[in-house]
Amino acid sequence: MARAGGTDPAPTGAGERGLPPAVVARLTVYLRALGGFLADGVERVSSEALAEVSGVSSATLRKDLSQLGSYGTRGVGYEVENLRQHLSEALGLTRDWRVAIVGAGNLGRALARYGGFGTRGFDVVALLDTDPQIIGNEVGWLRVGDAANLEAVFRRTRTNMAVLALPASAAQAACDRVVAAGVRSILSFAPTILQVPEGVTLRKVDMATELQILAYHAQRGESGGQSGEPAGDPA
Question: What is known about its subunit structure (predicted)?
Fold first, then answer.
């Protein structure tokens, strides 16, 4: 059994051997920065400019991008649209990702209303819960479905990615059903360690842990230590 964690393999588009988790995390930052350049009408960008916006050194950026291939020209820089396309392919974002959110509590409803998923290539197709008082309610453009029908909903919507916004007590059973329904990519907000079979990628978001890490770095900063690295997996 595989456990949740922050060291999942890179998406298949990142190459046969995969990329280090820290590199994959930085690629998402570069992709967001490139989107900003495109929105401003910038067609070419230097490694120094892209690195500055991304919060890394130009050496780190060039090393990361070199693992995907050679997309820049010395003295000229990168074609923004071309590099954005290559990064999207490497991260698997050119696929059709259809996301179901299991759990329609406060967090699940907030996620369902978030409009940024669509602009990043993720189509939220279902929101499920077990509470009769919640089932049938409209949340954004979705109507809350009955989690008892999870498998049928997944088939109908062709769900291939799931988000678990559930309490710890309900998370493992829901995760097992999601996996049995054929979904191999899961993001869990449940405050517990989940077990999944080999071949299933499980990412865990623990907000309390992130706050504890922030507290550690804040304390170090107040005592004269370094403020810490940007959020993300260690290299």
Answer: Homodimer.
Question: CA-CA distance, 141 to 134, in Å (whole number)?
Answer: 15
Domain ranges of the chain: 12-90, 97-208
Report CA torsion sign: 104, 108, 114, 120: negative
- HEC per residue, 196-230: ECCCCEEEECCHHHHHHHHHHHHHHHHCCCCCCCC
Q: Is 160 annotated as a binding residue?
A: no
The response to whether 108 counts as a known ligand-binding position is: yes
Q: Is 232 part of any known ligand binding site?
A: no
Question: What number does CATH give the domain 97-208?
Answer: 3.40.50.720
Fold match between 12-90 and 97-208?
A: no
* pLDDT value of position 150: 97
Per-residue pLDDT of 68-110, as tens digits, reads: 886 666 667 899 999 999 999 888 888 889 999 999 999 999 9
Whole-number pLDDT of residue 8: 36
Q: Does 104 belong to an annotated binding site?
A: yes
CA 90-95-98 angle, to 5 degrees, is: 130
Provide the CATH topology of domain 12-90.
Arc Repressor Mutant, subunit A (1.10.10)
Q: Per the annotation, does 199 bind a ligand? A: no
SS in 3 state form for 93-112? CCCCEEEEEECCCHHHHHHH
Q: Is residue 107 part of an annotated ligand binding site?
A: yes
pLDDT digits (tens, 9 = 90+) for 9-33: 333 344 445 788 899 999 999 999 9
Does the reported pTM lie above 0.85?
A: no
